[in-house]
Amino acid sequence: MSPTAISIPQFAQTQQALLLREHEAEKLSSSLATSATITVSPSTRRTLQATGYALTGIILDQCRTGMGGRVVGDFCADPATANTADTSDSDGGPQLGAHGIRVGDVVKVMEIVSGSGRKAGGKEKEKERGKGVVGVEGVVTKASEKMVSVAFGQSGGGGISKGDEETVDTLWGKKLWLVKIANDVTYKRMNQTMEKMEKMSESEHTHFMRVLFGHTTPSSPDYDAVGPIDFIDPTLNDSQKEAIRFALASREIALIHGPPGTGKTHTLIELILQMIRRNMRILVCGPSNVSVDNIVERLAPHQIPIVRVGHPARLLHSVLDHSLEVLTQASDAAEIVRDVRKEIDEKQASIRKTRNGRERREIYSDLKELRKEYRDREARCVDNLVTGSKVVLATLHGAGGHQLRNQKFDVVIIDEASQALEAQCWVPLLTASRAVLAGDHLQLPPTIMSRNLKVESSAASNGEAPILSGISLETTMFDRLLSLHGPSIKRMLTTQYRMHEKIMRFPSDELYESKLIAADGVKERLLTGLPYEVAETDDTREPLVFYDTQGGDFPERAEDEDIAKKESLLGESKSNEMEAAVVIRHVDNLVEAGVRPEDIAVITPYNAQLGLLSQSLKGKYPGIELGSVDGFQGREKEAVVVSLVRSNPQHEVGFLAEKRRLNVAMTRPKRHLCVCGDSETIRKGSEFLKHWMDFLEEHADLRYPDASEFT
């Protein structure tokens, strides 16, 4: 065993301990309910609705059968309590009022328990403690002003239990409310995968696993087996072609490093098409639904058999035609499945017409058998569809669902691998023999909420296995493999199609070994070249602007402790009112010159500063995009204004010292980047920040704002 090799069982044990701590941290910091029984006062329910976490004053309007035998319930406003004068539409029907419930949310629907007084509420409180409030969990499939639809049963699939069926039935005629709850399906899938890995004997460790943990070295790429490649896309550049050639020739693992704007997804589409030509079967995964749907959208025009696995409520509308639900309904077996579904719905409706307990039990017994038949028929239909597809796409944790059980693939492709937890990647990889990982490890890794918790002491006190040195949730598989096997397993894309050359230059020199090249079509483009009229001004003719607020006249402000306690989102956040004023004036100047607000983004690392900027800009320019640096990863805009916020005598920069965060900030714009910050404070934060300030002072249009103009 190589000295750098990692013990597979110890790795799995470590991941389980780290994942447990992360799950605890998520639950502690989440505003979402996690308990099985939720009992709150009417005022709390109203507050939860006002803050987007709940919907109250509803009734069950109708039920039907959805995919997997799930019961789908439609909920509308309770006409008895709705204020129709304020909440009715032109048809006269009551509306739900403002709410923050969205498609894909995991929710629990419960009865509103009446009787808040001591005397009247005594029995109800006793009922709550003993049996729990009547309620059932599901996933929101539709959400509008008049109706919210919820598919009941496990959010990860697997139908609905008899207990859940009967609970849904008890909701008829009740005054109800629903509340968002934390979704722990992803955590469970990762934990189950790590448990399986831990229990594997050494003889069960595949060659692929041994390579990925350093027990053996990767095989040399077999270029002879690949042969000459007839590329489908004529626009591919040399670095993209080489990445595809290398991924096809690699026998166990290939990393495709795609810096910002280099056409990583574009490259993956060609790779998938080339693999199909070689009669390979491919599983494509990503850490989020959006990352997977993006690939589905790009593959769809190529008319190849693809299946998107996942809860239809969470898929983009544009990819639904490729989802299992839609494909199942359109398949040859759909008619038989529909017949059983119709019979289930008729039985479901008959329950409400009988009060006789024995008859109801008989109907439930019939329903149970019908649902079993439905699931069996649908499962065969699903299995045929998935088996017949050359490309199957799912989120990383979705790849652990029952639909893909026993399915074999020649290769697993993971997009955005540098934003995924390693345990998440192992969900599809545990049975794999070959993989391609695409991402950029020099941008932000997945957000880890437990990074400040002392996991070691917790594990030791619980008698668990010690945390393996050097393993953390923040270290992604992409990072670890690069560190383990070096650059021989990686190919980097080097032509970028997003940024003006001057915007690209610093990240290229400092992070990407000066290898990035700006494509001819983008290297000199400015705001004045937008496909609509923009006046030439001091701002629109410059690709790179730096407002240096040095001198202490633009000081940062820590959020008031009382406010911070009330607003956990702000935490210990910082703001800078004077710097915000500089940002706002610059945005005003761009808009006055003709740049459309929807082509401008204002980003900042601090939520408190984001709140400050939103107050002034959102009302004035509804189309403008405001966001955190972290939340803007993967995005782009014609013009981006970055507010760095930090300015203090101690020259403290906090998490601005994380160069991957700054890399995200400076690589979002296409034609114009404006940076606002105090160079005196920022340059003291790290060697990287010093180099950035030196670069901006030398290459940007340097401006020194006068504080007296903003007071």
Account of the 3D structure:
The protein contains 24 helices and 23 strands. With 711 residues, the chain is α/β, with parallel strands linked by helices. The chain has a 7-stranded parallel sheet, with helices on both faces. Strands 1-2-5-4-3-6 form a 6-stranded antiparallel beta barrel. The longest helix has 31 residues, at 357-387. The model is unreliable at 84-90, 116-132, 155-163, 454-463 and 561-571 (pLDDT under 50).
**SS-based class:** alpha/beta
The rounded distance between the terminal residues' Cα atoms is 66 Å
Indicate the radius of gyration in whole angstroms: 28 Å
Strand percentage lies at 15-25%
Task: Spell out the blueprint of helices and strands.
Layout: H1 8-29, H2 42-50, E1 54-65, E2 71-77, H3 84-87, E3 106-111, H4 118-131, E4 135-143, E5 148-152, H5 162-169, E6 176-180, H6 185-199, H7 207-212, H8 223-226, H9 238-249, E7 253-257, H10 264-277, E8 282-286, H11 289-299, E9 306-308, H12 324-330, H13 334-351, H14 357-387, E10 391-395, E11 411-414, H15 422-429, E12 435-439, H16 455-461, H17 477-485, E13 490-492, E14 495-496, H18 501-511, E15 517-518, E16 544-548, E17 557-558, H19 561-566, E18 574-575, H20 577-592, E19 600-604, H21 607-620, E20 625-628, E21 637-643, H22 659-666, E22 669-677, H23 679-682, H24 687-699, E23 701-703
Parallel strand pairs: 7-12, 7-13, 8-10, 8-11, 9-10, 11-12, 14-15, 16-22, 16-23, 19-20, 19-21, 21-22
Antiparallel strand pairs: 1-2, 1-6, 2-5, 3-4, 3-6, 4-5, 17-18
